[in-house]
Design brief:
- The chain is an alpha/beta fold.
- The protein folds into six domains: 222 residues, Phosphoenolpyruvate-binding domains (TIM Barrel, Alpha-Beta Barrel), CATH 3.20.20; 95 residues, M1 Pyruvate Kinase, Domain 3 (Beta Barrel); 132 residues, Pyruvate kinase, C-terminal domain (Pyruvate Kinase, Chain: A, domain 1, 3-Layer(aba) Sandwich), CATH 3.40.1380.20; 182 residues, TIM Barrel (Alpha-Beta Barrel); 102 residues, M1 Pyruvate Kinase, Domain 3 (Beta Barrel); 135 residues, Pyruvate kinase, C-terminal domain (Pyruvate Kinase, Chain: A, domain 1).
- Helix content is 38%, strand content 19%.
- It contains 36 helices and 42 strands.
- Strands 1-2-12-13-14-15-16 form a seven-stranded parallel sheet.
- Helix 7 packs parallel to helix 28.
- Belongs to the pyruvate kinase family.
- GO terms for molecular function: ATP binding; kinase activity; magnesium ion binding; potassium ion binding; pyruvate kinase activity.
- This is Pyruvate kinase.
Amino acid sequence: MVDAGMNILVINPNMVTRDVCKDVVKCIRELEESYDRERLIAIAFDVAGAPVRTGTFKEGMSYEAKLVEGNRVTLTLDEEYKFGCTEELIFIDTQFFPKLIHYLRKGDRIYLDEGQVTLLVRDVGFDCINCIVEEGGLLGSFKCLTLSRNRLNQEILRSTYVKDLDFAAECGADFVFTNFAGSISMIEETRRILPKTTKVFAKIETQESVKNLRELIAVCDGILVCRSGLAMYYTPEKIFKIQKYIVGHCNVADIPVFVTGQLAESMISKPRPTRAEASDIANAVLDGVDGLLLTIETSWGMYPFDTVNVVDNICREAERAICHEISRAELNYCRLLRGQVNDSIKNVTGASAVEAADSCSASAIFVITTTGASAISIAMSRPSCIVIAITVDIAVARYCLAYRGLHPYLYVGEGVFCCLLDIAWRHRHVGCERVTEWCEDVDNRINAAIEHTRHTGLVKGGDRIIVVTGSVSTSGSTNTIHIFTLEGEHSKLRIVGSSHELSQVGSPWSMENTAVAFPFPSAVGASRTRQAHGAGPRYSVMLSRARPLSHLQHTCNLDVDQVADNVRQTTIVCTLGKSWKTKEGILKMMDAGMNIMLINLSMTPRDICKEVIKYAREIEKESNYSRPLGIAMDMTAAPVRTGIFEGGPSYEANLKEGSRVTLTLDDNYKFKCTPEIIFINTKYFPQLIQCLRKGDRVYLDDGQVSLIVKDVELDCVNCMVEEGGIIGSYKRVTLPRDRLYQESVQLNYIKDLKFAAECGVGFDPFTICSLHDLIAASDGLVIRRSDLAMQYTPEKIFKLQKYIVAHCNIAEKPVFIIEQLLESMVSKPRPTRAESSDIANAVLDGADGLVLTMETSWGMYALDSVRVVDNICREAERAVFHFETRGELKQCRMQMEQNSFDIRSVTGASAAEAAASCNATAIFVITTTGLSATSIAMLRPPCSVIAITLDVSVARHCLAYRGLHGFVFTGKSEGDWAVDIDNRINAAIEHARSTGLVKGGDRIIVVTGSVATSGSTNTMQIFTLEEEHSKLRIVGSANEVAAATAHKGLLNLADSSMGQQQHQQKDEEVIDELEEIRLIQGARSRRPRFSVMLSSNKRGFGGINDIRVPL
């Protein structure tokens, strides 16, 4: 496990006997000694109390029982059922807390598998609990059972807790994870019981602990975000926001933060993680977590070493994707706001070392530290290289393992100077003899650490390194940085020099003579002023609190209790399923949140396709096109899937490496698959099996199991398991792609395209090799993560997804994400924490839509899946930092020369900026082709964009863009463009009121054109909505326009004279005339706050900044 990447070993003393704990601790310490303490392993004790777990079902570990709502279930303590659980009788193990069952009362709720199944207690017996299933689902073996904490006897819990703390101190634990984080007094009492060398981490797993976060950060040494515990108090869509909120506050406060709970849960029984899990881990690293805590994955999972290897690889990839400069700038800014910038010499030296390391591209920063404070301060500044903490205290070295990017080195050489110092001597003067001894000791420590890092591959010859030291050996004396270039192997550095050299030049260790460079120039001046006057704040900054200026500050300001009542902007695409292919079923899915219905032509008969499309068009017509529904057709070949195992749909077979497996086409095995014979369904591609050759690889369940073809027969393929794992029913079979796209496949593809055109479908997914060619040639992209997983390792998928999404956002093309978004909800009513986080981070990355496949095509909880995605999207959209997003998009488009300065684009850009400035609720855009509306939506304004069009196909296409809502105007044209504008805008406003997009008192932006032709968008106006049913006058009637024509000459004359007048008085007179004319015209309307009309004859337009909007 250490070789795989483990840094800290966690022991739960309530799950392991005391003797085993002592043996494990002894083994760890012996292992450290065998490495000469060059590889340190910290030991953490989880004193949260033993979890109560269920037994094993009689069908085996991989079996999942279906608990149906309303059924009776008995939880028993009888060990006869420990390995023989059934749907009606489930064993629970309370050996570490035998009296726990007696604290339950009738009406209490019991949560199984972290809330996947909810039971309601009916009565409690001597050794059993009779319950009724309140919320059903699938339940596996050895799942956690959560009881109501307020029912537990606090005295018993406390006594067990104190015993565990005493035992942790006896074993010499380096860290203790406590679940009594809701009580500050318990944290303080924990500190009194434990020795000072044992660090206390508070587990955030309740609402109380989240509310007391700042107080907990102040009294503990670290934070552990326990997502499984939080899931008992918060809905799934809240977890990601809470995690980011906690991590942000810990980063600003310079304390380590770990995350645990369903990080790689699928690897309990499978050798590879899901895409959601890989993305979740990567995004946790990008958010700033210091550590990831694996629990059940390594405690009793089948692949503990593989799990650690996978997490290690994902972390490496994620760390390479971090923009360190932005991270540091945001950290410094947030600490400045809170007054947490420390101007001590030690901290200023550390900050200078970080800046120097980035400036010279150093490979490592070597820090000599006594207490670890100097090294920790540097590591929490998030340098772009590793930090080596050189210490003689093994407790300090192990504590450094909790910090990201901080690698401890325990110096055990001879003549450890700081250990020989007498305490009384430290208060006397430091003589030259003592100084020279310390200087030689510095050389020895640094060179020993360099040799160690050379050996481990952290640095090599030719690398630049930063060395941070102190003038004396006492704590807090760090004041010097050195920059070196490493030479050949075994070469020694002279950091300070010998005693003879020092005697020639005198002592350079006076702190007044030490030169340091702080990254903030203004801070240095303030520091000198403070030293001169002896008092006063280091610097005073007045900042506006109205809008965060950094992403980290925005994260720290997230309101985790805020109700996400906003209208969802992200598009949800649902694959057609048998359970909702009726008109009523489609309506229910639309009510749940579906925007686009996806039909896989290879899996759906043509007559059903036509019938479903007919239902969709009828629904649109009945709603007078106020609820447009997009229809997409998937042109990819039908996926080949396995059959159902004899144990049922929830049964999972274990395919062992080296065993023989036959893939058969025989329908007799369709519902009778075994680990030796597996049926594959090639109904929609009967000749597919003939494309296989000996030596080809066949992947089951998106690569979870790998087979090698040995020979191919008429109706079967004989294979050998190359990489084993657990395989369930109806899993995808992936075959070599280069053999698939032959003439027969192309012919089917062309037929599908013709059928899609016949049905009037607006979305046709297809594939192209080059990303940039695809962006240029297509109208949008779909990221199919399962296919990418066949060509890339799991740790690469998150980076590919972010890369593709970013390029699409810059190019103003919509991008959707598909595969394994809510795979667990195929059979369970709630998503995993990794899935919730994956969806939320996809929204935060900028994805326009999310495509559900198996979840809605044949999953048990199709409606629930859509509702969950809807809730998560709305929560994530409230957490988007729009100010930063718009700025980054603008900057990237300018760098790639993709900015457009035509009148339509500039008008749209001004509308987006105005909406952000005045907190508008919606932007209403009259559009013919949809280009004006999509251009505004891709600028990512902080509000909804309403595209008002006469073409229903344009309204449907708008569904593909995030934040863009299509409205089809079905009223009659009056023949007067000005009147038509008023009618269309007011109709759209009434629709927006009815759907909750806007309400009275909201500000709105209206974007229109001077004429009714396409491409004429040139006007932006701002209004405040009044009471219901009030009408806005956007332009006015033709008569009013004719009456205003008399003033047009004066307006043009005044506009031209503004550029010719040189004196301020004449300019002010012209402006007064302009304002008078505009006020007269505005009096005939509903008094818009301001309007901007761009003339087509304006040349050399500089962009958005040329528009002066008086806010």
